Amino acid sequence: MADRVVIIGAVALGPKAASRYKRLVPSAEVTMVDMSPSISYGGCGIPFYVSGDVSTADELKTTSFHVVRTPAFFETAKGVHVRPSTRAVSLDRQKKEVLVEDLNTGAQDTLPYDKLVIATGSSPRKLPIPGTDLEGVHAVSGLDEAVEIREKIQSGSVSKAVIVGSGFIGLEMAEALSDMWGIDTTVVEITDQLLPGLVSPHLAEMARRDMEENDITFHFGEKVTAMEGEDGRVTKVVTDKRTLDADLVILSVGVAPNDGLARDAGLDVHERGGIIVDDELRTSDPDIYAGGDCVVVKNLITGQPVFLPMGSMANRQGRIIADNLTGRHKKFPGVLGSWAVKLFEIAVSGVGLTMASATRAGFDPVNVHISQLDRAHFYPEKGLMYLDLVVDKKSSKVLGIQGLSIMRDALVGRINAVAAALPFGITVDDLQVMEFAYSPPFSAAMDIVNSAGNVAANVLDGINRGLPPEEFAERWADRESGDICFLDVRADADSGPLAKRLDAPYWKAIPQDELPARMDEVPRGKKLVLVCNTGARSYEAQVMLDAAGIKDSENLQGGMASARMLGTAP
């Protein structure tokens, strides 16, 4: 065990490791240093502080029993020394010393250690363009900057804001500015969708449409080239396609691991950035541990190193590091990348690989999209949930799942259930029989995750030939060609006015339960696009048509519910 432990970084992992180690070894001398005057706060809560959902900055620093985590709190309640506003300048691994500098006075001194923990986190990526140093341009790098942003908003000096980037923080900040403060908010994204790399194009489009209904403007496929200002303050954001007025600019273009201290000390660092650690979170120096946003860890699905800046991971790793400082040899096996984001009244959540990332990783994946009520159809309070299930064609192994729903907690609960099972290499067969607590107010008897497994099994068996929901618009645009017919198999009670008002050769309404008796009415020699509300009855219709020898059909995945969410439903 170490008598002297120095921890560099005091936001998430650092305080967790320090407090745990002092509980295990009360006699040890534990010191945390951090460059910021603010320590031990919930960084992921910053957008909710900016919005006003969290009233004060101190609330992000409080314990669950409402005590603010200050340096004095750690000293008295935890027995941990804290040095805020202090920069770790360099490491001398031979002498086992950290050279530190007081950022207020410039004074330098050394901290000896027996064991060292690096928890230096990450920093926002910078755009190499003019104007990023103008007043009013922020990267939300920490709590102190968040306080500055909120003070500007509360002063009434912000009427137009531009968010650069549509990842978690960018979208949460967009909601905060528009919903709570009524600021005219625009998001500029260099890729062609929001949440790039995290969800399929159709889930991204569903989320975009919902946010636009809440007065957020999006510009995709645009590159920000400059910020312009007057009197040192930002007034415009220039892209390669337009110029936008702005009183406030939030840069949310990703983060990079703060690995410079480790790199300069000769520790092993990944070529793409991030300190390399083993499964005990030990660096290439056996007396130095590292975790949180500054390290790379193993992706449990691909087996490859991955950089995953998540506060939840940092907290879990902090406890493991503390245990291993005592010689307990606890393991951190790797990550799946579970995430969730609240966007106005909906949630989007996921775990594991998307179709695109699975393909890049060398799998031969298929994406199955379904829509279904999150609980019993007869229960009054319910909502549709939209899920993408990504599976490997050869092994039927589940690679990932992502979803969107107005029933936010219910969605995250489903994603978490799959996340708990993914490390065990579950297959589609396992998903079909996964057990969920059932009661009509909470779920359907056949839970939507079970249904996703069922649909995936049918797709892999070739008996459900699906049309991805984003391709429905292409079929609809081709409806006058004479080569295609939409077969609406919804019951009369829920098919709506469309089936009744259409009198066209490209649309035929035959309820699924009437299809066997009316098979002679089904158009021959045309591509049939089968539609119902969610894709369940249209799948049954496809099986019936196959049995009748009519095999040129495709089933709209997610049904008209998904098409409506995408804005492609006629």
General description of the model:
The radius of gyration is 27 Å and the shape is globular. By secondary structure, it is α/β, with parallel strands linked by helices. The model has no long low-confidence stretch (mean pLDDT 94). The strands form eight sheets. The protein has a five-stranded parallel beta sheet. Strand 11, helix 6 and strand 12 form a beta-alpha-beta unit. The protein contains 16 helices and 31 strands. It folds into four domains: 4-123 and 256-325, FAD/NAD(P)-binding domain (3-Layer(bba) Sandwich); 137-253, 3-Layer(bba) Sandwich (FAD/NAD(P)-binding domain), CATH 3.50.50.60; 339-460, FAD/NAD(P)-binding domain, CATH 3.50.50.60; 466-566, Rhodanese-like domain (Oxidized Rhodanese, domain 1), CATH 3.40.250.10. Helix content is 27%, strand content 26%. Helix 1 runs parallel beside helix 8 (311-325).
